[in-house]
Amino acid sequence: MASVLQFDDVSVVRGGNRILDSVDWTADSAERWVVLGPNGAGKTTLLQVASAMIHPSLGMATVLDETLGDVDVFDLRTRIGFASTALARRLPANETVLNVVLTASYSVTGRWNEEYDAVDTRRARRVLAEWKLDHLQERRFGQLSDGEQKRVQIARAVMTDPELMLLDEPAASLDLGAREELLQLLSGYAAAKNAPGIVMVTHHVEEIPPGFEHALLLREGRIMAAGPIAEVLTAENLGETFGLPLELEHHDGRYTARSLVK
Ligand SMILES: Nc1ncnc2c1ncn2[C@@H]1O[C@H](COP(=O)(O)OP(=O)(O)OP(=O)(O)O)[C@@H](O)[C@H]1O
């Protein structure tokens, strides 16, 4: 098992505050992590370091065996799949779904010829089918529903066959049906034997896909708990992380939480 992420005492300082504070964390290629924490806890900042978009202010971050600061981040980023709402906003609304997914491979290969075209198009169609988007491939990205757009973002990230997949709130703003469909797809993707290391940020335990077996709880930039989900995701830990007493239930790989405040 190779490590995909290693954070040694990583802090990110902005405006004089440590928005990520002394984080020690290792994630391996066979692990699927969920990162939970309240608004402003530092989850997106953690993913920004993991995706080589920013460097730690203090400490050392190693991503796919490359130490940030000693590596060409443009090369490194091509090995990382990243899906987030911020990234989706940069996708052209008038582009077809097929092209949105297909163009992901150009940023990796950086070239274009007939041979790549055929190989890439076949792969893009296969990825679209896997993410239940094949019937939408000629539709404009901007005309899709939120749920469909989320799946397209992830399909685009999958297209490059990344060694590390980072998902920032993939189920946010989805309706119940779209959320459940996405979680099922994510669960299947995570279970595939060639799946990369995966880190998914969410606010809600209900959005943890079955099969994600590691959890990291973050509050005010600090890790509250990290490790196997059965040990980390307890009512007590979650309550401390979100700052209120909680009841946590777990059935068939799914979690639900509710406040105990009357
Ligand atoms: N460039 C910056 N300068 C100052 N403060 C920042 C900067 N970027 C982020 N922050 C602050 O750092 C904290 C952590 O932000 P971050 O976006 O990582 O949190 P988050 O856990 O992803 O939050 P949310 O769940 O609301 O998306 C927040 O309080 C945010 O306001």
TrEMBL record:
Span of domain ABC transporter: 5-245
Entry keyword set: ATP-binding, Nucleotide-binding
SMART domains: AAA
Pfam families xrefs: ABC_tran
Recorded superkingdom: Bacteria
MF terms in GO: ATP binding
Matches recorded under InterPro entries: AAA+_ATPase, ABC_transporter-like_ATP-bd, P-loop_NTPase
PANTHER family: SKFA PEPTIDE EXPORT ATP-BINDING PROTEIN SKFE (PTHR43158:SF2)
Protein name, UniProt field: ABC transporter ATP-binding protein
Species for this entry: Leifsonella bigeumensis
